[in-house]
């Protein structure tokens, strides 16, 4: 599956990072490293963590992209 | 909610019921943060009732709009184009500028805000804050153990505040021997002082803290160290060094943001657990539940009421506002909004969808949240490992201070001594 992290919306709450550090790495300032990467591939086995991160993000910055 | 005669609004200076609605004008309330007795007693109840009412209200004292639903509060926090942070308090004391404080970057609007925020976010990143965890545990354990044998204690003064002040002091790079001095100054600045009618006590705390920090900033300029003060001194904006005054304004924000808020959050959770034995037993039996308890406590006892000033005449979510009007956004109402959370009025340790906004949203969201979480997760774990099953003392007060931020004044608990779990 693919996900996107919206560069404009991400404010560095790091709730996704708390769910899974490897899946949602942060840059040095504490914002999601994925926010400048466009659509990112995520293994289907990680679907549960992706759903948690989408739900918990206070800015609603994470979305499935198909 | 108490209905009153319209002229009751004119009895300024008297302690009144918190939300007095004049019947024929459902959007009109009286909510005087500085004087309201009911607010001190049960502000979460007040915000629940507000969340159940109209989506916006207007308080005539001292004059501000308030949004009451999670959806509107969130939307407003993101609209920095409509709502400015330059005057970040709707309190009468602050409007009249009796205390000339400035906190940077909190009191800047985008795009300038982002230039200064970039200075502090890397210093407070999740990875850097995680390194503090062993030290937080050590200090927390020591404080809890010192309380144990007495069989009773006051959690705010004996645990939460000394822990947070200690950790913050080391992080900032100030001498521990003076921790109590500036812990007290920061408390006066945030919580205020009941005898401070003209703002002079808070004013003096502000001046003292600014002078104090200025001295240490100058010392770090001459002799850099590995601490946050050095980071502030060496910071640049657009490739230029920043003035000493600005540096002090940044350090000051770390003080007001980093101390009493975390003290209050921890104290709220302990006070809750003194009533909620099931939650208390659960986190003591299974420490992996502590983060969930902290997050639920952050939602249920959200403590900040943000203030903004309207930048242009606007009708936002149906609320007609004029340039210069004040807007208050109570996160406590957002956390208890039944449209945002299933069973919102219940503290649920096992809540699955806890997308709370206790640290705010949008560009000004709390930059210290990662520090706060490391402190709370570790300290609440250690506290419950050391202190056995506890309850409120018979005469325990549940009064809070409520001034845009809130927190328990005291949390008096007792336990059967001599049965520590360590």
Q: Summed up, what is this model?
A:
The complex is a heterodimer of chains A (66) and B (422). Chain A has 66 residues and is an alpha+beta fold.
Tell me what you see in this structure:
The complex is a heterodimer of chains A (66) and B (422). Chain A has 66 residues and is of the alpha+beta class. Chain A has one domain: Alpha-Beta Plaits (2-Layer Sandwich). Helices cover 23% and strands 14% of the residues of chain A. In chain A, strands 2-1-3 form a three-stranded antiparallel β-sheet, with helices on one face. The radius of gyration of chain A is 10 Å and the shape is globular. Chain A starts with a strand and ends with a strand. By secondary structure, chain B is of the alpha+beta class. Chain B has 16 helices and 17 strands. In chain B, strands 3-4-5-13-10-6 form a six-stranded mixed β-sheet. A three-stranded antiparallel β-sheet of chain B has the order 7-17-14. In chain B, strands 1-2 form a two-stranded parallel ribbon. In chain B, a hairpin with a 2-residue loop joins strand 8 and strand 9. The N terminus of chain B is likely disordered. The chains are: A alpha+beta (66), B alpha+beta (422). The interface between A and B is medium-sized, with 16 and 20 residues.
């Amino acid at each position: 599956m693919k996900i996107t992290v919206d560069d404009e919306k991400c404010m560095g709450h790091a709730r996704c990072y708390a769910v899974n550090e490897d899946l949602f790495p942060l840059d040095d300032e504490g914002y999601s490293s994925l926010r400048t990467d466009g659509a990112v591939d995520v293994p289907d086995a990680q679907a549960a963590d992706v759903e948690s991160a989408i739900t918990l993000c206070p800015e609603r910055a994470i979305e499935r992209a198909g | 909610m108490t209905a009153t005669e319209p002229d009751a609004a004119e009895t300024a200076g008297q302690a009144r019921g918190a939300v007095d609605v004049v019947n024929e004008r459902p959007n009109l309330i009286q909510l005087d943060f500085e004087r309201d007795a009911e607010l001190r007693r049960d502000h979460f109840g007040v915000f629940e009732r507000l969340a159940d009412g109209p989506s916006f209200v207007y308080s005539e004292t001292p004059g501000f709009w308030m949004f009451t639903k999670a959806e509107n509060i969130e939307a407003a926090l993101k609209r920095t184009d409509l709502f400015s942070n330059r005057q970040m308090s709707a309190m009468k004391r602050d409007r009249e500028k009796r205390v000339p404080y400035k906190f940077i970057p909190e009191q800047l609007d985008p795009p300038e805000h982002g230039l200064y925020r970039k200075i502090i976010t890397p210093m407070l990143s999740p990875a850097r804050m995680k390194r503090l965890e062993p030290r937080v545990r050590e200090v927390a354990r020591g404080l809890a153990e010192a309380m144990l044998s007495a069989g009773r204690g006051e959690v705010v003064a004996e645990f939460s505040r000394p822990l947070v002040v200690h950790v913050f002091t080391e992080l900032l790079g100030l001498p521990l021997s003076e921790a109590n001095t500036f812990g007290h100054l920061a408390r006066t600045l945030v919580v205020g002082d009941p005898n401070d009618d003209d703002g002079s006590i808070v004013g003096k705390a502000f001046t003292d803290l600014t002078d104090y920090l200025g001295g240490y900033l100058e010392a770090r300029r001459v002799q850099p160290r590995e601490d946050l003060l050095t980071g502030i001194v060496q910071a640049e904006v657009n490739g230029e060094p920043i003035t000493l005054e600005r540096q002090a304004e940044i350090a000051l924000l770390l003080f007001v943001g980093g101390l009493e808020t975390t003290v209050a959050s921890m104290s709220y959770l302990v006070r809750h657990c003194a009533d909620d034995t099931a939650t208390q037993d659960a986190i003591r039996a299974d420490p992996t539940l502590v983060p969930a308890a902290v997050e639920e406590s952050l939602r249920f006892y959200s403590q900040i009421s943000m203030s903004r000033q309207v930048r242009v005449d606007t009708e936002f979510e149906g609320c007609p506002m004029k340039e210069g009007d004040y807007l208050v956004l109570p996160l406590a109402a957002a956390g208890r909004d039944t449209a945002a959370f299933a069973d919102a009025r219940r503290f649920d340790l096992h809540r699955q969808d806890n997308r709370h906004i206790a640290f705010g949203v949008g560009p000004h969201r709390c930059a210290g949240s990662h520090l706060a979480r490391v402190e709370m997760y570790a300290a609440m774990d250690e506290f419950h490992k050391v202190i056995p099953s506890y309850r409120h003392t018979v005469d325990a007060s549940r009064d809070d201070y409520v001034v845009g931020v809130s927190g328990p004044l005291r949390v008096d608990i007792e336990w059967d001594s001599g049965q520590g779990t360590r």
